[in-house]
């Protein structure tokens, strides 16, 4: 569903969830502006038992002149024309049901409501503001001409991703980088975010931790509070000497919101968040900071009446137990029971980082899996596949394992349509490069034979060429090593084995 599909309706009412947060207000404001520019009669409303009270939200409402109206649940209103619920789903528990002629949904939470044909729900996005931003861009709406709207959208993302520390979807990052907003207003909102009540909640939460001294992790369940408090507590916990990894969560009306931190290279916070929420929600972020959400409905389906404390403590322990760590440098690869494979003759794209003009020494690479800070050594090469994954190689490895050509790596024919096109950004000059613009074709050498073994259990491999970042192997993935150099160990994801390799 696109915004232009909704232009056949008039009037249009946009409803935030009850107790609206900054993200709901921002997303609603974006829609309001769009429909207003199309000459519609628009309203922006919310309902529920409480009117907006939090200091930062009142400030946001006043400073950005949000035309939001409160509808008391006692008023039995009937909405004429179209009702769009934003940052929530019509019929779900966190939004008062208003009778309406037609209904549409624009949201980024787990899909709860499936019977509304007019809906756009994208659970992987960090904020509903991002979704509205991308829908406005699809319609070529002149976003950057409206600083107030941009400020609202930025603040929506800011508050929904723990001050931008837990965001991971590339669209969230793209929006963060492209919006022009009032910095002074954002800092004013930011400094009125918590109430004294919430300060107390944070304090109480911190004295009730559970701690695992074998794996050096802590788990805290907080009372219901602003989700930013979870990030605040977890950032604080990580500074404790005995704590390497932590999880802080609370219960919401429809599930659990969580914040994960790690300060050791053997645990990536984004992956742990994905592990804890797998099949029952969504999680991700950065190597050190991540967040996630678990849907109560799915949780109950899978874990029944298990208390959340028990679930999280057990799941944290299992994560450590299920993924032992190996360092390729001092690991003996045992080729017994392994099969022999070679690369298929397929096109990959390669970029010699030195060829990016003015990239500088420190840069950030952005892929579907998130963002990574890297030091751009002179002989660093990046190899891209059809799905937009990126692997790091040295000059020596490129020569040993690939045949490098001069031909450009054209997106068409080489990359799948849906793949996110990875970006690289210089930290000094701030320039952004789309890697495919600089990529040339390389083809893996067919004569290089590879031992391949199916993994029965999970494993983390620190490959010989990167001792800072591990590759994760899950049961069903493959552990592989080159025959001519068995210290060259790596993981092949289960679904890519037959796609990229063939037996000898
Ligand atoms: Mn939201």
What does this structure look like?
With 504 residues, this protein is of the alpha+beta class. It folds into four domains: 3-159, inorganic pyrophosphatase (n-terminal core); 196-322, Roll (Diaminopimelate Epimerase, Chain A, domain 1), CATH 3.10.310.30; 324-340 and 446-504, no CATH class; 346-445, no CATH class. Helices cover 28% and strands 31% of the residues. It contains 15 helices and 29 strands. A six-stranded parallel sheet has the order 3-2-1-4-5-6. The protein has a six-stranded mixed sheet with strand order 7-8-9-10-12-11, sandwiched between helices. Strand 7 (209-212) and strand 8 (217-222) form a beta hairpin. The protein is globular. The mean pLDDT is 91. Bound molecules: manganese (II) ion. The site of manganese (II) ion (MN) has 6 residues, from loops.
Subunit arrangement of the protein: single chain
What value does the Rg take, in angstroms?
25 Å
Question: In percent terms, what proportion of residues is strand?
Answer: 25-35%
Large-scale geometry: globular
Which spans of ≥5 residues are poorly predicted at pLDDT below 50? none
Mean pLDDT: 91
What is the domain tally?
Answer: 4
Short description:
The chain is α+β, with helices and mostly antiparallel strands and 504 residues long. Manganese (II) ion (MN) binds at residues 23, 87, 108, 127-128, 160.
């Amino acid at each position: 569903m696109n915004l232009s599909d909704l232009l056949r309706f008039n009037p249009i009412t946009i409803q935030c969830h009850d107790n609206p947060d900054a993200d709901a207000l921002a997303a609603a404001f974006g829609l309001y502006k769009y429909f207003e520019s199309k000459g519609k009669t628009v309203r922006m409303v919310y309902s529920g038992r409480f009117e907006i009270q939090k200091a930062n939200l009142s400030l946001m409402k006043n400073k950005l002149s949000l035309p939001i109206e409160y509808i008391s649940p006692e008023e039995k209103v009937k909405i004429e024309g179209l009702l769009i619920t934003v940052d929530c789903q019509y019929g779900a528990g966190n939004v008062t049901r208003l009778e309406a002629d037609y209904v549409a949904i624009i949201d980024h939470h787990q899909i709860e409501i499936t019977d509304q044909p007019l809906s756009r729900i994208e659970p992987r996005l960090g904020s509903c503001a991002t979704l509205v931003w991308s829908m406005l861009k699809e319609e070529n709406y002149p976003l950057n001409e409206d600083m107030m709207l941009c400020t609202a959208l930025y603040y929506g993302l800011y508050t929904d991703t723990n001050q931008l520390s837990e965001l991971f979807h590339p669209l969230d990052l793209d929006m963060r980088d492209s919006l022009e907003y009032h910095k002074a207003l954002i800092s004013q909102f930011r400094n009125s975010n918590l109430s004294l009540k919430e300060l107390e909640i944070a304090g109480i939460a911190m004295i009730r931790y559970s701690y695992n001294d074998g794996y050096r992790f802590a788990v805290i369940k907080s009372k219901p509070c602003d989700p930013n408090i979870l990030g605040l507590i977890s950032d604080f916990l990580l500074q404790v000497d005995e704590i390497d990894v932590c999880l802080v969560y609370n219960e919401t009306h429809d599930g659990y919101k969580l914040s994960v931190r790690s300060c050791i290279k053997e645990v990536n916070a984004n992956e742990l968040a994905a592990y804890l929420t797998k099949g029952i929600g969504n999680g991700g972020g950065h190597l050190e900071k991540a967040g996630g959400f678990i849907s109560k409905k799915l949780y109950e389906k899978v874990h029944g009446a298990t208390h959340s404390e028990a679930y999280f403590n057990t799941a944290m322990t299992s994560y450590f137990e299920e993924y032992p760590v190996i360092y390729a440098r001092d690991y003996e690869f045992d080729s017994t029971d392994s099969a022999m494979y070679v690369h298929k003759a397929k096109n990959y794209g390669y970029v010699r980082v030195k060829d990016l003009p003015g990239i500088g020494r420190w840069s950030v690479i952005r892929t579907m899996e998130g963002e990574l800070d890297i030091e751009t050594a002179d002989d660093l090469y990046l190899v891209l596949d059809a799905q937009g994954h990126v692997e790091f190689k040295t000059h020596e490895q490129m020569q040993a394992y690939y045949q490098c050509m001069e031909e450009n790596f054209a997106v068409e024919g080489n990359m799948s349509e849906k793949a996110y096109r990875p970006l690289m950004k210089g930290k000094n000059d701030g320039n952004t490069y789309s890697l495919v613009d600089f990529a040339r074709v390389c083809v893996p050498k067919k004569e290089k034979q590879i031992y391949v073994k199916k993994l029965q259990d999970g494993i983390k491999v620190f490959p010989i060429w990167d001792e800072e970042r591990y590759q994760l192997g899950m049961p069903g993935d493959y552990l592989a090593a080159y025959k001519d150099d068995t210290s060259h160990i790596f993981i092949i994801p289960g679904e890519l084995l037959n796609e990229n390799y063939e037996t000898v």
